[in-house]
Amino acid sequence: MNHIFGILFSPLHEWERVRDQSGTVGGHYIKYVLPISLLPCIAWYYGATRIGWTLGDRVISLTPHSAMQIMVLFYVAIQIAVGVLGYMVHWMSETYEAHTSTIDKGVAVAAYTLTPMFVAGVIGLYPILWFDIIAGCAAAGWTIYLLYVGVPIVMQIPRERGFLFASAMVAVGLVMCATLLGATVMLWDLGAMPVFQE
After folding, report:
1. Is 3 exposed, middle or buried (0-12, 13-18, 19+ CB in 10 A)?
2. Residue whose C-alpha is closest to residue 157's, from 101, 114, 112, 115
3. Where are the beta strands (DSSP E) in the chain?
4. What are residue 59's DSSP bridge partners?
5. CA angle, 97 as apex, 91 and 100 as ends, to 5°?
6. pLDDT tens-digit map of 91-150
7. Do residues 30 and 162 touch, judged by C-beta distance below 8 A?
């Protein structure tokens, strides 16, 4: 967890620390991914059930049971996404002749790259649609910047090759987003759809 502030405010130095530290996939999950990914889930649960969204003169909120079901699925989706991205970083590392090609480094790159998205999830405590969109776009931009800066450092490859590597990872991320949208539709059909309070 001590990488949060470094990765957000001095990423070049922090990526060097990530490169030099040793760890395991389980260690990255237990020490970082599992705790930090709770932030957006708890925040959005509270915001969706207690505060709600204001549309005109109406306030729309979810029932606690419905929100809990959705947030548990959201939490599981985050864990899967980090694992898949980490594996893809590891799998592609050979193609881009990376010096560091262990799966734990791939998970580290995926987890620390997604830090701005996890932190921005706290805005769910008080959901305001226009502010959520702006904050989400800013967090996504910072996430992509971290990926482009971090891949060459952690994988110990030239910046030009790192640019291509990071671009491939952005493409993987976009495919995962489309997959997640499809999975959401299927889960809604299976009964995990939002139920609104009256």
Report:
1. buried
2. 101
3. 53-55, 58-60
4. 54
5. 70
6. 998 888 887 678 999 999 999 999 999 999 999 998 888 899 999 999 999 999 999 999
7. no
Distance CA 94, CA 78 (A): 26
**Cα distances (Å, whole numbers) of residue 35 to 40, 119, 140:** 10, 12, 20
What is the distance between the alpha carbons of residues 179 and 186, in angstroms, rounded to a whole number?
11
Helix axes 64-93, 38-46, angle to 10 degrees: 160
Tally of residues, the chain: 198
Give the integer Cα–Cα distance in Å for 26 and 134: 33
Residue 198, pLDDT > 70, answer no
Q: For residue 88, which amino acid is it?
A: M
At 196, give phi and psi (nearest 5°). Answer: -95, 145
Amino acid at 66: S
**Non-local CB neighbours of 73 within 8 Å, separated by 6+ positions:** 187, 192
* Token representation of residue 181: 């949208």
CA 93 from centre of chain? 21
Which residues on neighbouring strands pair with residue 60, listed in sequence order? 53
Q: Kindly state the tokens that stand for 149.
A: 């800066």
Instruction: Tell me how far apart the alpha carbons of residues 183 and 164 are, in angstroms, rounded to a whole number.
Output: 29
Cα 43 to chain center, whole Å? 15
